[in-house]
Records
---
Amino acid sequence: MPSRPAKTLDTFPNPDPDRDYTIRIRIPEFTCLCPKTGQPDFATIQINYVPAARCVELKSLKQYIWSFRDEGAFHEAVTNRILDDLAAACEPHYVQVTAEFNVRGGIYTTVTAEHRSDAWIPLDPVRLP
């Protein structure tokens, strides 16, 4: 069992590739370092995606998220990097990453970034009475 962080995101075949469905992943213990001060930044990462042919494997995602712990990164950069890496690994129809950073210097920061496949046409939302 690996006991160290890794930058690799493993995937597995989508068990139902003919159906659009949403996978929601919440990671409440994300940490990285402030690139200016070296002090830790804490965030909750929310990943929402509609898989195409592949899904992200959660153990590898855990180790991937862990790999940021000792890296300096601006909030905007780390959110977009996570998005880019997920999009490259899974090639989903749609993926959105939201990073809600805890207060630092009296300021909360939330960064949201998304990626959408050019070929994907989302279904119309169902409106229930």
---
Amino acid sequence: MVMSCTVIGAFAQLLIKSGANALPAHLGFDLASALAIATNLNVIAGYSLYGINMVLLVLALRHAELSILYPVIALTYVWVSLLSVFVLHEQMNWQRGSGIALIVLGVAVIGRETRS
């Protein structure tokens, strides 16, 4: 269930980013800007996925320790980075790749500890 939270969270971020890219460049702190954001379908879909993500996370937390689950949720960063490269065509350099590898390694270590 937590793994699905990481994937859902990553797709939520991707939708919100896509929605943000489609917004007018002249956004400010006014009613027109708030309406532009609130009526953007990608932004709405992204935050809806966040809502689903939070419900699943609450259900997962009922059956496991937060100190174990929360590091697994860090895998969302991995999925967001990969989706950013393949869907948004963003660049991946060695520093980002190394950071992603460290996150995966850290989650693997924690997962291994919990099975011992």
---
Amino acid sequence: MVGFRSMTTLVSAGLLLSACTAMTPPVDVTRFHNAQVAPIVPGSVAINANFADEGDRDSIEYMTYSAALLRELQRIGFTEARDNGGNSEYIVRYTIDRAVLSAAGSRSPVSVGVGGSTGSYGSGVGVGIGINLSGRPKDKIVTELSVRIAHRANGNVVWEGRASIEAKQGSPAAQPGLAASKLAEALFRDFPGVSGTTIRVP
């Protein structure tokens, strides 16, 4: 759980980032819930990331995503739990998956929290005599945010969703801060959303 002061600072920074989301590509969003039978009543939340590496716990990237999620949860009526979240009504767990989608269609993982890639991008040597002045098509960064909201008391999941975005490598939308803001905003738009349906959010 990110400290309250750090989270507050990042939430403020996130407000600035949200102003730029109009420049980003659309987001594919899928949600699952049973709110039509058991309505989701907002309450206090503790936000925790699922870490592949414990060294990522204090990374700026994860803190940015936690802040973006908190901002959107507060917008729809949830509150941030105090005292390290140990007494929150809900636990919000999330996972970030990033990969490089090459122009040729191959996919390789990207290290979260570092900003570089792991794996090979591939290479090739042209054999034609023509010169392509347009340059090599840029690879894309695919970022997926998966979130699950569960009752702390019994562990029952009340809502889960995932959002993904593809952005050209090196573009603003491929940067973790802007991607976090856009993904979180799209994921919780019209909460809880239509269950089991994938939509595209501009």
---
Amino acid sequence: MRGEFVDIGGRRLYYYAAGSRGSGDPVVFLHGFPVASRLWHTVVRDFPDGYRLVVCDLPGYGRSEAFPAPSCGGHADAVVALLDDLRITRATLVGHGLGGGVAQAVAVRTPERISHLALLDSAAFGVIPRRLRRLARATRLAAPLARHLPPALLASLVQGTVIRGFAVPEHSRLTVDSSLQPFLTAHGRETLLGHLRALDHCDTASITPQLATLGIPTAILWGADDVFYPATVAERLRAAIPGATLDIVPGAGHYLPEDAPERVIVRLTELMAR
């Protein structure tokens, strides 16, 4: 496993590679809010041999530099640029939460480059995640005051909400704590506020009509106890994407790669066999 930075429009984007090149298309993993690439550590560690795995920190998360005006569309531009830099012409794209919205944007823009699509507890249809909605709107409406909040206080407010998205909160500590570390500075506070504003103004609704045109084998996986995106969003996605399958996982929350990594691996390998 190795981590590297690539230059995307003059800003650094971090990714790490694992597995082996194998004979199939690479598998690219995109995380959700507010976590970074660490979300996938168990899935990547236990993934079957023979696959090239690429896991990135989206702009402004983890080790990646923030890009102006974060949005699903902007993140999608960065992901396509990463694929270009790594000379990946086709890939299985796996997106969780916000990363699922990004994956949809990449798929509708460059469908010829996506061999399979997996959406886990995904942003979609412009739906603002429950529980985070109030915090996102408060930081937008009170932007001048929010900019003066101590960075640690803002991060703790996010942490207190996000931790409820895990089926076993104790399992979230390392993933959430490490992911929030970059936001514990004045610059990090501005970046986190930008991410929260993006949640309150999600642009996934703009690509909804194009989902019906996708001819990509798609699997949708959802935690039955997701407190941010209800299963009705999963049902809408299945209906919107032709031939999509849906697996709702009992006892799992929003952060499915942490709550049920074995189930995620099984469904991904099944998807890539289609």
